[in-house]
């Protein structure tokens, strides 16, 4: 297998592993198309405006739920736990009592900070 083939099959980078109600969840860095899909879905749902800023407080919280859905992976299968474009999955995450507990590391997984970007260059 060529280097190109191996790199094209790379797994998402693990940013942090969290435990929710005794279940381990991997928070992984999404690809650029996955990031854009989250923003497009949030815009389409009326959660954010064209400037990518929440239109309401509820829109902001739903965007956070969408981010969590985008970065939460099952550590055993490597598959996403929730679909960030599925309204039922977003509703589940939005209403979850653990949303606030995982929001900060999930947002960090979606958007690397400047120091991390510099460290990777």
TrEMBL record:
Protein origin, superkingdom: Bacteria
Protein name: Phage protein
Upper classification of the organism: Bacteria, Pseudomonadati, Myxococcota, Myxococcia, Myxococcales
